[in-house]
Amino acid sequence: MNRDGNNKSFWQYNIEREKLQTYTETEFDTIIIGAGITGVTLAKELQNRGRSCLLIEKENPGFGTTGGTTAHINNFFDSSYDEIISNFGENSAVLLADAAKETIRYIKRNILQYHIACDFSECNYYLFSADEKQSKKLDDILDSHHKVGIDTIQTFSIPFTLTFEKAIEIKGQAQFHPLRYINKLLKEYTKQGGAIVTGTQVTEFNTANGIVTVTTNNDDVFTAKNLVWATHIPPGNKRFSVLLAPYRSYAVTLQLANPVKSMAQTADLYDPYHYSRYHQSDNNYFLIVGGFDHKTGDEDDTEKHFDELMKYVDENFKYKEITAKWSSQFYQSADGLPYIGKMPGQDNIYISTGFTGNGMTFGSMTSLIIPDLLDGKETELSKLLSPARIKPFASAGSVFDEVINASIHFVKDKFSADKIDELNEISNGEGRIIKHDGTTYAAYRDDKAKLHLLSPICPHTGCTVRWNPSEVSWDCPCHGSRFDIKGKLLNGPAMSDLKKIESINDN
């Protein structure tokens, strides 16, 4: 199977794509766009509740972040509970902690019910500090975990070869192989008559008289009572263009020479932080290490993050060999919590986005929220994570930062193209934003010396894309849309490709 990057993730190896049924109807109760963990889990849950669904996937299931996750399933989040208490109150933090624990139980029930062989294991998480300032933060986290009912204790040893000043052990975590999980859910979904179309891009959608009409690049037209965007950020230039910030994170999988005593997860409190976890597949043991996050499109030399990651790995771990390295994209919300529920101003459009680094948990939690909303049942959890919420104190700074960041890129990148007289100055395997005879191009020369020319203007809001050498893609620094070397859309919120330029004379 493919995913949205040049590098192959650990999960893509030895994975077989299921043969999926195609659709036979064109009218459905709910259309779900995006077949990652959010869309697939939601489709199966709605099917279990008697609703007819259509899944529409632009590429193949797991193409996006689900195929590039490090597959942690946690009952705590990148926004720590002390921060959540400060921003939303202790009752809301308890509510979210309970929902996280129920989400892990929900995933486990699916695995048991559908006999999913996906390397699922339950384990504990070791969060540690490296200096006095981090230790104070760790104390705050420990105290908040006690307040919200997350089973956490101080510990004086961790099952990783990492030095630390202070550490806590957070119980009740889990992990799995995400593609095996969603593939088996899809198999069960289609076996029960669920509809899915892959390799199909939504190009247009509208609502009228309580019905959503969706048009695809194949000129297929589908209708439904409800539409769910399970694609990270929804398309269009809406409020979520400033409430969500795209980030990339880097990961590597190392095969270990010897078994480990038990599965475990860990992270430090640096910003950005480093994270690691063990993984067992058959009789083989692995260590997955990640970190070095940055805003999408803000780095010219993305390869250096792999170099920094490997330096960190070599300084801290012993391993047999490297089996995979990759990067992946996630979206951070303005106030630290995801947006799951009804699109503001829309009666039958729903979204699920802003998971930060907790996509497996929040993506699955979506199935504890949206099905109830479709049944007309609003819960305290759906109110807390409502996309219509406004938390000015929690989000004002982040929103301002994203507006400024997008504005800077929108203006600066228009004038930052390399002035180049001869296109042959671009080396094989290199991509550059260039100006040639007064016109700006996104230019890439492949390994066979063929030049690929594109308009550098992202069709979402008109920002200029940036070259990502590690994933061999053009990434928009404003809202995270990504495109391959031929201009084909990899990730939204854009809904169309970069304009292809056949030759210099086309402009």
Task: Please characterize this protein's 3D structure.
- The protein is an alpha+beta fold and 507 residues long.
- It has helices at 37-48, 81-88, 90-113, 132-148, 178-191, 240-243, 303-316, 359-365, 370-374, 380-384, 392-412; strands at 27-33, 53-56, 72-73, 121-129, 152-155, 166-175, 195-197, 202-208, 211-216, 221-229, 244-255, 264-267, 275-281, 284-295, 321-333, 339-342, 349-353, 418-419, 430-436, 439-445, 451-454, 466-468, 473-475, 482-483, 489-491, 500-501.
- Strands 3, 4, 5, 6, 11, 12, 13, 14 and 15 form a 9-stranded mixed β-sheet that branches.
- A hairpin with a 5-residue loop joins strand 20 and strand 21.
- The radius of gyration is 22 Å and the shape is globular.
- The two termini are 36 Å apart.
In short:
The protein is α+β, with helices and mostly antiparallel strands.
The biggest beta sheet, please?
9 strands, mixed
Please tell me what the overall shape is. globular
Low-confidence stretches: 406-416
Structural class: alpha+beta
Instruction: Give the C-alpha Rg.
Output: 22 Å
Helix content: 25-40%
Amino-to-carboxy terminus distance: 36 Å
* Residue fraction in strands: 25-35%
